[in-house]
Amino acid sequence: MPERPYVIDEMISAKAIAARIEELAGEIRHEFADTDKLVVVGLLRGSFVFIADLVRELNLPIEVDFLEASSYGNAMQSSREVRILKDLRGAIEGRDVLVVEDIVDTGHTLNHVSGMLRSRNPARLRTIALLDKPSRREVDFRSDWIGFEIPDEFVVGYGIDFAQRNRNLPFIGKVRFTDAEG
Ligand code: IMP
């Protein structure tokens, strides 16, 4: 299928992201001040830039692990099946865990992943997402920390892709298709 032409309009600048991460890191440091070691779990692939910047602001003893999940819509049942494509390398029982996600959209992914990780009996489990699109929610899920609430727009950059492209943009931008404009 030929690619539709689009441009990317900046929505959240690199500077605004950095400032927000500093604030969030302060809250996380406070929450986990007494931890012996925090397992920071990045959800692949969209969180890889966010987790890299976040952990460098944390100043806590941490470990980093990754998990990859993929969600498939089922229009017939208006439901989603979330599959784990790559599980954690380490055990989290009795450990402090922070799950790091790029966007909470329908909520299925983070809801499923945090439920699954909670069943492994971590000491504390918290979630953080850089972006939240509350108007798109299909399941009752709230992340403990959110960087920015955004409207129902398709966004890219800062690790987030559109058909595997644009992950390397330093800011968050929204995709605007130019063939649909009059
Ligand atoms: P959820 O399960 O619907 O909450 O989906 C979350 C996942 O959908 C995110 O981790 C992203 O990979 C993807 N996603 C949702 N919105 C966007 C977007 O605007 N741009 C790129 N990916 C998105």
UniProtKB/TrEMBL annotation:
| GO BP annotations listed | GMP salvage; guanine salvage; hypoxanthine metabolic process; IMP salvage; purine ribonucleoside salvage
Instruction: Identify its protein family.
Output: Belongs to the purine/pyrimidine phosphoribosyltransferase family.
EC number of this enzyme: 2.4.2.8
Substrates-to-products reaction catalysed: GMP + diphosphate = guanine + 5-phospho-alpha-D-ribose 1-diphosphate; IMP + diphosphate = hypoxanthine + 5-phospho-alpha-D-ribose 1-diphosphate
Q: Subcellular localization, per the record?
A: Cytoplasm
Q: Under which name does UniProt file this protein?
A: Hypoxanthine phosphoribosyltransferase
Instruction: Please name the pathway.
Output: Purine metabolism; IMP biosynthesis via salvage pathway; IMP from hypoxanthine: step 1/1
Q: What class of enzyme is it?
A: transferase
Q: What is its main location?
A: cytoplasm
Does the keyword Nucleotidyltransferase belong to this entry?
no
SUPFAM superfamilies hit by this protein? PRTase-like
Q: What Pfam families does the record point to?
A: Pribosyltran (PF00156)
Necessary cofactors: Mg(2+)
What are the GO MF terms of this UniProt record? guanine phosphoribosyltransferase activity; hypoxanthine phosphoribosyltransferase activity; magnesium ion binding; nucleotide binding
Query: Which part of the chain is the Phosphoribosyltransferase domain?
Result: 14-162
A GO CC term assigned to this protein in UniProt? cytosol
Keywords assigned by UniProt, alphabetized = Cytoplasm, Glycosyltransferase, Magnesium, Metal-binding, Nucleotide-binding, Purine salvage, Transferase
Q: Which organism is it from?
A: Primorskyibacter flagellatus
